[in-house]
Amino acid sequence: MTDLAKGREFLAGALAVRRWSPEFNDPVNGVALQFGADAQGVCYELLEPVGESSPLSKALASRKAILNHVAYRVANLEAAAEDLMDRDCVPTGEPNPAIAYGGRRIQFFFTPLFMIVELIEALDHKHAFTQMAEA
């Protein structure tokens, strides 16, 4: 069973997440991922590291910051990034294209409150979910 499958099983039982997107393999960002949604429309993202160089591998090994981040869809990545940097947030790296968003760019920031924020330049994006059978 993959880590994504374990995550699906847990979220289905604990939070009644029943709708799932396809799985995505994103080597540019070093992860495999999948999105799930509950009956209220809350979207959850499951991540699995791909390789030891994945930024997720270090976080999982440290057992810190496991609720990794919150993500916001934005119309203009540069403008949203500038706003965060004006508020003393620090980018963790350059923007990268993301497979799960059709190649649209994502970028992560550390906030002064030690949170991680992800900006997704895909304001109009909608994940394609399918209903999973009850376990």
Kindly summarize this structure in a few lines:
This protein is an alpha+beta fold and 135 residues long. The chain is built from three helices and ten strands.
Describe the fold and architecture.
This protein is α+β, with helices and mostly antiparallel strands and 135 residues long. It has helices at 3-15, 55-62, 77-86; strands at residues 19-20, 24-26, 31-37, 43-49, 70-73, 90-91, 96-97, 105-110, 116-120, 130-131.
Kindly list the characteristics that best describe this protein.
135 residues, alpha+beta, 5-stranded mixed sheet, 3 helices, 30% strand
Write the layout of secondary structure elements.
Blueprint: H1 3-15, E1 19-20, E2 24-26, E3 31-37, E4 43-49, H2 55-62, E5 70-73, H3 77-86, E6 90-91, E7 96-97, E8 105-110, E9 116-120, E10 130-131
Parallel strand pairs: 5-9
Antiparallel strand pairs: 1-3, 1-10, 2-3, 3-4, 6-8, 7-8, 8-9
> Could you give the distance between the termini?
16 Å
Topology order in helix (H) and strand (E) letters: HEEEEHEHEEEEE
What percentage of residues falls in helices of 4 or more residues?
10-25%
Q: Give average pLDDT, whole number.
A: 87
Q: Low-confidence spans: pLDDT under 50, at least 5 residues?
A: none
- In total, the number of strands is 10
What CATH architecture label applies? Roll
CATH superfamily: 2,3-Dihydroxybiphenyl 1,2-Dioxygenase, domain 1
CATH class: Alpha Beta
Largest sheet: 5 strands, antiparallel
- Tell me the radius of gyration: 15 Å
Number of helices, where a helix is a run of at least 4 consecutive DSSP H or I residues: 3
Integer tally of domains: 1
> What fraction of the residues are assigned to beta strands by DSSP?
25-35%
Question: In the CATH scheme, what's the topology name?
Answer: 2,3-Dihydroxybiphenyl 1,2-Dioxygenase, domain 1
3D shape: globular
Structural class: alpha+beta
